[in-house]
Amino acid sequence: MVEATRRGFGIDIGGSGIKGALVDLDKGQLIGDRIRIETPKPSTPSAVADVVHDIVTQAGWDGPVGVTLPAVVKKGVAHTAANIDKQWIGTDADALFAKRLGRGVDQVAMLNDADAAGMAEIRFGDPVARTGVTALLTFGTGIGSAVFQDGKLVPNTEFGHLEIDGHDAEKRAAASVKDNEGLTYPEWAKRVHRYLTVLENLIWPDLFIVGGGVSKKAEKWVPLLDLRTPVLVASLQNNAGIVGAAAAAAEGIQH
Question: InterPro entries recorded for this chain (predicted)?
Answer without folding.
Answer: ATPase_NBD, ROK
